[in-house]
Amino acid sequence: MTQNIVEIDNLSFGYKNRTLHKGISMSFPRGKVVAIMGGSGSGKTTLLRLIGGQFKPSSGEVRVDGKVVHKQSREGLYQLRRKMGMLFQQGALFTDLSVYDNVAFPMRELTDLPEIMIKDLVLMKLNAVGLRGASQLMPTELSGGMGRRVALARAIALDPDIMMYDEPFAGLDPISMAVICDLIRTLNDALGTTSIVVTHDVEETFSFADYIYFVADGVVAAEGTPDDLRQSTMPFIHQFVHGEKDGPVPFHYAAVDYKQDLLG
Amino acid sequence: MTHSYIHIAVKRFLQKLGNNFIDQIWRLGAGARLFALMLISSGESFRRFRLVVREVYFTGVLSLVIISVSAFFVGMVLALQGYNTLQKYGSSEAIGVLVALSLVRELGPVVTALLFAGRAGTAITAEIGLMKATEQLSAMEMMAVSPVSRVIAPRFWAGVIALPILAALFSMIGILGGYLVAVPLIGVDAGAFWSQMQANVDWRFDIVNGVIKSIVFGVACTMIALFEGYDAPPTAEGVSRATTRTVVTSSLVVLALDFALTSFMII
């Protein structure tokens, strides 16, 4: 068993005419909470999709449990995905199913467990996120924070080895944010999973992550523990951590000269 | 100067035309690929047939009202128009045959398919397009559950099952509408209405051919709706365009297929 459950090795990836990652390397040790931070559009979510095998890298590779993800057959890829759980940015709950059925979905689809056992497991997972009482509600009846927690219960339904969180705090009020923050750490420690959290919320991430990667301009711009990064004097990290408007990451998107643009 | 502008405009037009053509070929290939993948992944739908039954309810049962009401009016109009012409030749008793043959051979399968595309097809496209836009299909993929076998295949088989049944109901209700106009309203003899229909509607050449048409239309309409949803850009505009394309493409394909099938069946 390798020490790192996920390894990204010299990975490059881009869409049609835009290179997103230029030789990124990262490693995610078992049992740790590792955050990937960076500005909007820096390709953080795409990294999760590359780990999940939804995209193929242009070069380099992602290894999950020692297996190269993009070289797996469809069946092999599905086997790897059974070790993963993913919390999507908007929850991605199935809107035609109740909260209970959403959490039961992976159990019904991927196991032969009897319904009576599924019921116990679903209630346990919902209890872990504090929403056992909401089991009969429909996703449309939930607030943003509740929806995210139900999605989390569904993601941990089959006790995955790796949990991936895509912007888990986006659009949440401070209370829901604190709840999700606490759940990520608690579930990680209780279930012994490895958590990969993609986010740009500095305070929350620094409070629970074991290790942080900063992605900018397609490369890992900095990495380290929260304490290391807080003390970092690197201009980019300083700008990001302190939320400064201008700095190495410019306020303006690349454009032709302003005067020239106005005068045609 | 003007010459070079025309040159550029023509070049751009041809480029756009070429790109659109290539896009359509790509889409056709992607649709065929999805169809093949769906057929391969259909085992799950038959093992867990309740998934298909659930979709038959959404595509078939919920389309019953529009199908029944339309069929009733179509049947009544057929009887009125048919009587108007037939009475000139003194053969108004043949009105039952005219209504039945028009419905069973053509209007039943074709109008049902057009209504199905508008009612159920658009619902399928919008649902799958929104599932894609809200990452529900991605979530399924990440759970190691194939969306093709769990979402696409049950809906496909439900459409293929529902459309022939709806077409049969359309014909039946249409004949009833025709009867109500022809017999109680106009005063055509009831015995002549039914007996001529019984004598002249052939099981093999009329009814079975009508059923074959509706099965083919079921395959086409459902597959178009599924593909448009699955291929829709994950935005509000993308889903809305895909929904429109479902109706337009399904209608044109149904009418073209109807001509092709009728040619084979008659010749």
Plain-language structure description:
The complex is a heterodimer of chains A (264) and B (267). Chain A has 264 residues and is of the alpha/beta class. Helices cover 37% and strands 24% of the residues of chain A. Chain A has helices spanning 44-51, 74-81, 99-110, 115-128, 144-155, 174-191, 202-208, 226-230, 235-241, 258-263, and strands at 4-15, 18-29, 33-37, 59-64, 67-68, 84-87, 162-166, 194-199, 211-216, 219-224. A six-stranded mixed sheet of chain A has the order 6-7-8-3-9-10, with helices on both faces. In chain A, strands 2-1-4-5 form a four-stranded antiparallel sheet, with no helix packed on it. In chain A, helix 4 crosses helix 5 and helix 6 runs parallel beside helix 7 (202-208). Chain B has one domain (41-266). Chain B has helices spanning 2-40, 43-47, 49-59, 64-86, 95-133, 136-142, 147-186, 190-200, 203-231, 236-266. In chain B, helix 9 runs antiparallel to helix 10. The longest helix of chain B is centred in the middle third of the chain and has 40 residues, at 147-186. Chain B is globular, with a radius of gyration of 23 Å. The interface between A and B is medium-sized, with 19 and 13 residues.
